[in-house]
Specification:
Keywords: ATP-binding, Nucleotide-binding, Transport
GO molecular function: ATP binding
Protein name: NitT/TauT family transport system ATP-binding protein
Oligomer: single chain
Distance between the termini: 37 Å
Radius of gyration: 19 Å
Strand content: 15-25%
Pfam families: ABC_tran
CATH class of the domain at 7-93 and 225-273: Alpha Beta
Shape: globular
InterPro entries: AAA+_ATPase, ABC_transporter-like_ATP-bd, ABC_transporter-like_CS, ABC_transporter_ATP-bind, P-loop_NTPase
Number of helices: 9
CATH topology of the domain at 7-93 and 225-273: Rossmann fold
Bound molecules: adenosine-5'-triphosphate
Helix content: 25-40%
Number of strands: 9
């Protein structure tokens, strides 16, 4: 059955885990000379366990939206809730995990020490930290590399470690900003599959930024296409492909049609702008 994109936000609104309501962001003084309107009137709700991707032209405010949810930035207008509370409260309760394009691991700490860091900050005992970090390292396929340092790992392995670290506090929401953008295609495919499996198994709510429409369609329940700056929601695509998904789904006619539709929306956005 095909769900329309009009019904989808209502479904998410039933018990939203993340909600943006009328969010706008202006950098610099509002109305001032150097002011940059990054986002305008963004309203979006993610249901618990939902995987939503943001795609849009460079500079349309995707990272800005993620940073707002992560409490790294306050919106100029509008409101945001994460797990029923403000982003600040959600961050302090460690309900949010964040993964960047560059793994941003601490180079002087071993992999297990990196994964344990959020637990350390939360005051979890050393015994429990070791156990949980060990489990996560196994989960992301890095067994045997606990004592290695980040520089000894490949890019894909570093991203796996980064995902394990973000998941260490069992966050309700995982925010991912182009996490696989710097990886080769084969590693990226493999990590896409692992992320799909992990997010389903842990019932995590994921907000994922990517430049690849195909990656967005492969992973998501919904794909949000944004307009050029100031970023607004241009279209929400419902990805009605069955789960569990495998890489081969990319050959299905429905996948190809959805990816083409997303691309057309993106290109249309550029057309409207110019
Ligand atoms: N701290 C800041 N001060 C001023 N302008 C900023 C700041 N952060 C972001 N911007 C501007 O806001 C706009 C949105 O940036 P953002 O990084 O969110 O876009 P994006 O869609 O993630 O881009 P990309 O796809 O290239 O990563 C850009 O024009 C950027 O230059």
């Amino acid at each position: 059955m095909t769900r329309s994109s009009v019904e989808a936000p209502a479904r998410a609104a039933a018990s939203p885990l993340v909600s943006f309501s009328g969010v706008g962001v202006v950098f610099g003084s509002t109305g001032g000379h150097g002011a940059v309107r990054a986002l305008e009137d963004v309203t979006l709700a993610l249901a618990e366990g939902e995987f939503v991707s943001l795609v849009g032209p460079s500079g349309c405010g995707k990272s800005t939206l993620l940073r707002i949810a992560a409490d790294l930035l306050a919106p100029t207008t509008g409101t945001v809730e994460v797990a029923g509370q403000s982003p600040r409260a959600a961050r302090l309760r460690r309900d949010i995990g964040f993964v960047f394009q560059d793994s941003a691991l601490l180079e002087w700490r071993s992999i297990i020490d990196n994964v344990m860091l959020p637990l350390e900050l939360k005051g979890v005992s050393l015994v429990e930290r070791r156990e949980r970090a060990g489990d996560l390292i196994r989960l992301v396929g890095l067994s045997g590399f606990e004592r290695a340092f980040p520089r000894q790992l490949s890019g894909g392995m570093r991203q796996r470690a980064s995902i394990a670290r973000a998941m260490s506090t069992a966050p309700k929401v995982l925010l991912m900003d182009e996490p696989f953008g710097a990886l080769d295609q084969i590693t990226r495919d493999r990590l896409n599959m692992e992320l799909l499996e992990l997010s389903q198994r842990q019932r995590m709510t994921v907000l994922f930024v990517t430049h690849s429409i195909r990656e967005a369609v492969l992973l998501s329940d919904r794909v949000v296409v944004m307009s050029p700056r100031p970023g607004r929601i241009r279209q929400v695509l419902d990805i009605d492909l069955a789960r569990p998904r495998h890489l081969a789904v990319r050959n299905d006619a429905r996948f190809i049609a959805l990816a083409q539709q997303g691309l057309a929306e993106l290109e249309g956005g550029f057309g409207d702008h110019g």
